[in-house]
Amino acid sequence: QYNRVWVPDPEEVWKSAEIAKDYRVGDKVLRLLLEDGTELDYSVDPESLPPLRNPDILVGENDLTALSYLHEPAVLHNLRIRFAESKLIYTYSGIILVAMNPYKQLPIYGDAIIHAYSGQNMGDMDPHIFAVAEEAYKQMARNNRNQSIIVSGESGAGKTVSARYAMRYFATVSKSSSTAHVEDKVLASNPITEAVGNAKTTRNDNSSRFGKYTEISFDERNQIIGANMRTYLLEKSRVVFQGVRKNLIIPAWEAILSLRV
């Protein structure tokens, strides 16, 4: 049985291929057989051999660290299989949660799902933003120490929505007595801060140019008692404003806007 490898492709980024002839040190060409039956002579040197493909039994793993070979084509292929074939948008990479934006609403964020993840250890159930939120909430309650969740990604990746779901989880499991969702209150400041500085990108017509730091406060019973969101303007070159009163003008890039609920 020949080993399978990944080779770069201008359209599909990476293509799978089988090694049709054993490679020997010093060979300048590797004979490959693509999945469509096409033979390919791939130029190689001992320091730039193509990355090996994982066994089929590992394809679709819910944790990327479980793969035998962890490199760019392996990660992309595993995420594609989980997203396109299994309709799963979440995948772990150790303690990191990788999320694929489906650009549509999914029925996986209701109260029943929240209660299913409540009290569970991270890794006991399928990867989910609720599992990350539960781990942070549990560590905070158990160790009485502040916890942080970093949500990062490119424009249009779904960072704001992910943060909203995490806050919804905290509000539900802490049995907050607030009549309005905490995430709605915190995110209500977005139209104010994003009224200046947003920009259109190739992937998002209304891309925020801000970095947001949201702090949620809990009491001794681990119930939410308030939240504070600071918004930092990252690109001052996009700021335009008209000063009405000279003594009230504050350079927008020096201002930190905050909201308390």
From TrEMBL:
GO terms for molecular function: actin filament binding; ATP binding; microfilament motor activity. One of its GO terms (cellular component) is cytoplasm. It comes from the Eukaryota. Gene3D superfamilies: Kinesin motor domain. Residues 59-261 form the Myosin motor domain. The keyword Ligase does not apply. InterPro entries: Kinesin_motor_dom_sf, Myosin_head_motor_dom-like, P-loop_NTPase, SH3_Myosin. The keyword tRNA-binding does not apply. It holds the Pfam family Myosin_head. One of its GO terms (biological process) is actin filament organization. PANTHER family: MYOSIN (PTHR13140), UNCONVENTIONAL MYOSIN-VC (PTHR13140:SF313). Belongs to the TRAFAC class myosin-kinesin ATPase superfamily. Myosin family. This is Myosin VC.
